[in-house]
Write a structure and sequence with these properties.
It is a single chain. A six-stranded mixed β-sheet has the order 9-10-13-12-11-14, with helices on both faces. It has 20 helices and 23 strands. With about 625 residues, it is an alpha+beta fold. A hairpin with a 2-residue loop joins strand 22 and strand 23. The radius of gyration is 26 Å and the shape is globular.
């Protein structure tokens, strides 16, 4: 794919070219994409670039345009798949990969400016007519919703299934791939996360033939089995260069695993050089620890003792030919650090919401952006960490500093070590940011707004029950269980139908209404497919009216902008329900009760900031379903 820009005077440039790791036939939105292209020779690259410039000149396009090609890897034959005379999802990726703001430049071209009149906002010296140069590698991986729709067909075709995507930047392809994998937030952190070791060789070969969201994990398993690259290539049609890079990661796994017997027998451990190389290709401490049989803290301390820490490089659009003035950073484990952590004023760290998925969309991102603007106005230096190329928060001119990194404790800590922020905000980044609360406190970063223990009290069933007891607010009868057997006992005691759900969920993932014992067993198996650190909740299902309140609290006073009534009955997720504002069919008495309960809950949870509460109105009584002490 080529992203191209042209103005009314006929000046054209290519902003970026991107290569899909998957062959033609997988929609680009569902494909793992790398920028710039890695396997094209100069002749192929120039041939397609010239073709793209000719196409948009002939079509007389003014603004941004995206051209997709199919190129025969055996010859110079190519076809144009499609031309989009507008910005596309790939334009967002190209903008974030290069630091060249395609939409902004296209808007100025629409007003009649030419490319040589538009200043490059990153360097402040060059102009938009200067083609961006990349001295790093960018990998995009789609966020597919199969963890939520477990029985859905996982295959990838020309119809796009991804809800969002993550992007990562590193100075080597292997590192960028590893960073992107752990940015997905799908309980994956390496090429061992999906296990295909139980398949026979023949079954594995058949599995390689299926194009789905787990194909790079299958290729990794094939490499572990010693299946020749040419054979893997013949089945998957993925270029041998990429298979070889996956093999580099597999070889590192094997080298680390080889240290385990020495560690176990006390005859030594992982060598400094091996650790350095593992970090260069972005193996997280947790995975290194698992492979070598050490604990995570041991690996982390060993890194610090040997000076193996992340340094941050700047995205400057011009491969360091000119100095950049916008601090837009990515981490890598070799080379000097270009991020300046010195503080001129108080700093606040805003955590983004990661990839877009069902239940956590662009609204969380824009909350983060508004939050950043408010802090800037109040005189703070703002720092954003996020990894989603489709969002406003990853524009390089929103915060004072942007770190394009995975949102995991280790990656966030790398930024904290350099920036030493005075506080962090977690209530605008959805469940992604909330999950990092405890880790941030361990790093010594104060949480601004609602305190961490109060967030926990709203999420943790037993603590929340205590608060409801204290505030005298009713909720449906329920129980906390860990196994299917306990769940059956609880469900029979409470009486069917019951709502089964994992605690700490977003977008209703894993929630089901069960009507009998068999369904309980089935649903609990589904929930337990993902490793559970938290208990499973069993609640009596009340077929009532669902009412929702969003409010803002400063610790003492509370503002309720309004009460929303859902048209669908309870049991339809609030995100899938038609909602009416203001509420139409509840009595004043019920409204007063809801207002009173909202005040009591906000005070009991010491909310400073946003709070979202869902209620059931059932036989003239108001029950609480859940409280989210964050934006929703």
């Amino acid at each position: 794919e080529y992203e191209v820009m042209r103005d009314a005077a006929g000046n054209c440039i290519t902003v970026c070219n991107m290569e899909n790791i998957d062959p033609v036939g997988v929609h680009t939105g569902d494909s793992i994409v790398v920028a710039p292209s890695q396997t094209l020779g100069d002749k192929e690259y120039q041939m397609l670039r010239t073709s793209a410039l000719n196409i948009i000149s002939e079509l007389n396009i003014t603004g941004g345009c995206n051209v997709q090609y199919a190129l025969n890897p055996e010859s110079f034959e190519y076809c144009v798949i499609e031309v989009n005379p507008r910005v596309s999802r790939s334009s967002a990726l190209a903008s974030k990969a290069t630091g060249y703001p395609i939409a902004k430049v296209a808007a100025k071209i629409a007003l009649g400016y030419t490319l040589d009149e538009i200043k490059n906002a990153v360097t402040k010296k060059t102009y938009a007519s200067f083609e961006p140069m990349l001295d790093y590698c960018v990998v995009k991986i789609p966020r597919l919703p199969f963890d939520k729709f477990i029985s859905a067909k996982r295959t990838l075709t020309t119809q796009m299934k991804a809800t969002g995507e993550v992007m990562s930047i590193c100075d080597n392809f292997e590192g960028a791939l590893m960073k992107a994998i752990r940015s997905l937030e799908q309980h994956v952190d390496s090429l061992m996360s999906y296990d295909f070791s139980h398949l026979s060789r023949e079954e594995l070969m058949n599995a390689l033939d299926v194009v789905d969201d787990q194909r790079i994990w299958k290729i990794a398993e094939a490499v572990r089995r010693g299946i020749p690259y040419t054979e893997i290539h013949k089945i998957t049609k993925i270029d041998i260069w990429f298979i070889d890079k996956i093999a580099n990661l597999v070889e590192m796994e094997q080298s680390l695993r080889a240290c385990a017997p020495r560690v176990a027998s006390g005859r030594g451990g992982i060598g400094k050089e091996l650790l350095k190389e593992a970090k260069r290709i972005e193996f997280p401490d947790k995975v290194i620890a698992q492979l070598t049989g050490k604990d995570e803290d041991y690996i982390k301390n060993m890194r610090y003792e040997n000076g193996i820490t992340a340094s941050f490089k700047m995205v400057d659009t011009c491969a360091a030919e000119f100095a950049a003035s916008t601090p837009y950073y990515y981490s890598c484990f070799d080379g000097e650090n270009e991020a300046d952590g010195t503080a001129k004023k108080k700093k606040v760290l805003v955590l983004g919401s990661g990839p877009i998925r069902i239940g956590q969309g662009i609204e969380f991102d824009f909350c983060s952006v508004h939050c950043t603007w408010a802090f800037s106005k109040a005189g703070y230096e703002t720092i954003i960490i996020n990894n989603n190329p489709e969002t406003v928060s990853t524009d390089f001119d929103i915060a004072d500093k942007l770190y394009f990194e995975p949102l995991t404790p280790e990656d966030v800590e790398n930024v904290v070590n350099i920036e030493k922020p005075d506080g962090a905000v977690v209530q605008f980044g959805g469940q992604t940011a909330i999950k990092l609360t405890e880790s941030l406190m361990k790093m010594g970063v104060p949480i601004l707004g609602t305190k961490a223990e109060d967030v926990d009290a709203a999420e943790d069933r037993e603590l929340f029950d205590e608060i409801l007891e204290k505030t005298n607010i009713p909720r449906a009868a329920g129980d906390t269980v860990y196994t299917a057997q306990e769940a059956k006992v609880a469900a029979n005691r409470i009486g069917y139908p019951v709502l089964v759900r994992p605690s700490y969920v977003l977008g209703g993932q894993g929630m089901h209404i069960a009507f009998n014992d068999d369904e309980i067993v089935e649903f609990i198996d589904t929930i337990n497919q993902i490793a559970q650190d938290h208990p499973i909740l069993i609640d009596k299902y009340l077929m009532g009216k669902e009412i929702e309140v969003d409010a803002v609290c400063d610790g003492t006073d509370i503002l309720i902008p309004g009460i929303m009534e859902h048209i669908e009955r309870t049991g339809v997720h609030s995100g899938d329900s038609i909602s009416v504002y203001p509420a139409q069919s509840i009595s004043q008495e019920i409204i007063d009760k809801i207002e009173e309960y909202t005040k009591r809950l906000a005070r009991a949870l010491h909310v400073k900031g946003m709070i979202n509460i869902q209620f059931i109105v059932y036989q003239d009584e108001v029950y609480v379903i859940e409280v989210n002490p964050r934006s929703s």
